[in-house]
Write a structure and sequence with these properties.
The protein has 14 helices and 17 strands. The protein is an alpha/beta fold. The protein folds into 2 domains: 10-107, no CATH class; 121-380, pyruvate-formate lyase- activating enzyme. α5 runs parallel beside α7 and α11 (309-316) packs parallel to α13 (349-365). The radius of gyration is 21 Å and the shape is globular. The mean pLDDT is 94.
Length: 382
């Protein structure tokens, strides 16, 4: 007998903690709430006439650097875009937010986590919110929560598990669980009314929009179909060539941008670090086909895994407008993979910096923009 979709309790938990920001009682009229989320830890985005600040709450962990700690949380805070330096007004805001969090976190209840009954857990869930505002005219949408591709270096692993802990869900290894938002299109259709012109990211931070189960559920496709009748441009980033299932749909958008995560040019390294992901050559072929169809494309080379930088440039540059380059974060999680496979020389910050420099020079020489993607508008509307 099929199980009925489950209504998640995560938003109710976040609403209780964030109540002063949601009901207007925070007492800082110069700061406006842009958005909030709870799927990868708890986060708030606030803005004033002077700028925008993202504040993220993750599980307290003395080993990790952060802006501050409370009894329950590591608190990370940064000005948007991320490279901007925090101002005195920003820091004053964060201190005031910290005071609220410290008062209210005592009311958090962490249910006991039952043991997982199955090795792989796929839940059908009902959600109340889908279109998350990042600030300005930029939004993001997660059609799923969790990722069956399960790259072991993903920095969101601990944050996503902390969100599951808040709901009392069992601990299941990253790559073995997925929440399917079966009412996503219905919710999105309601939320886009009056949204105006903007950009909607669908990207593999918390999930890949083209999970293997996308061919069963078609949640991402349904969301794209909703966006087609709006002035919101989808920016899709994936590791999965199955995005080509939606090629004809993507061609119908007036404004769109499609990207692939390609952290190495050699599949033998992909098999070590991304064993659940599609082969590199298949991703490159998908990029080629999207480009040939007239769809603007980009690539994210993050983390810079072992690679031949010159070959990477030759394989990617002809088919993309821009690339993003970045190093490996939370590298201790996969250090054993480097050591076990005789690749320790590629696990250093020096290797990452040198490779990024070579890639930057090579892509720019080929006319490809090297971009942080903090503002996607120039790529969507060049």
């Amino acid at each position: 007998m099929a199980l009925q979709p489950v209504k998640r309790g995560l938003d109710a938990i976040a609403r209780d903690l964030f109540a002063p920001f949601l009901d207007g009682s925070f007492g800082a009229p110069e700061w406006r709430l842009v958005g909030w989320d709870a799927e990868q830890g708890l986060c708030l985005t606030l803005e004033s006439d002077g700028g925008r600040v993202l504040i993220e709450l993750e599980e307290r962990n003395e080993r990790l650097d952060c802006y501050a700690r409370t009894a329950v949380f590591n608190v990370c805070a940064r000005r948007q875009p991320p490279d901007a330096e925090m101002t005195a007004a920003d820091r004053d805001l964060v201190e005031r937010v910290l005071a609220v969090v410290r008062r209210r976190e005592a009311g958090l209840r962490f249910p006991a986590r039952a043991a997982a009954e199955r090795k792989t857990v796929v839940r059908e869930v009902l959600v109340e919110r889908l279109l998350m505002r990042e600030g300005g005219d930029q939004y993001y949408v997660n059609a799923y929560v969790g990722c069956m591709i399960g790259c072991p270096f993903c920095y969101v692993i601990d944050r996503a598990d902390f969100s599951r802990r808040l709901e009392g869900l069992p601990h299941v290894p990253w790559g073995d669980y997925l929440d399917v938002k079966v009412n996503a299109a219905e919710v999105l259709r309601r939320e886009v009314v009056g949204a105006g012109r903007g950009i909607v990211r669908m990207s593999p931070i918390l999930t890949d929009p083209y999970q293997p189960v996308e061919r069963k559920y078609r949640i991402t496709r349904q969301c794209l179909e909703v966006l087609l009748d709006t002035d919101l441009a989808p920016v899709v980033l994936t590791r999965a060539p199955r995005i080509l299932d939606d090629l004809e749909l993507l061609r119908r958008f007036r404004r769109r941008l499609i990207g692939f995560s390609v952290p190495t040019d050699q599949d033998r390294y992909r098999q070590i670090f991304e064993p659940g992901a599609d082969p590199i050559d298949e991703r490159l072929e998908a990029l080629r086909r999207l480009h040939a169809a007239g769809i603007p494309t980009f690539a994210v080379i993050q983390p810079v895994l072992p690679m031949n930088a010159e070959r990477m440039i030759e394989c990617v540059a002809p088919f993309v407008r821009a690339v993003r380059l970045d190093r490996l974060y939370v590298g201790e999680r996969v250090r054993h993979l480097y050591d076990r496979n005789g690749l320790s020389e590629f696990a250093t910050d020096e290797y990452a910096a040198a490779t990024i420099a070579r890639l930057t020079e090579g892509f720019r020489a080929r006319g490809v923009q090297v971009d942080s993607f903090d503002d996607l508008s120039p790529l969507v509307d060049p």
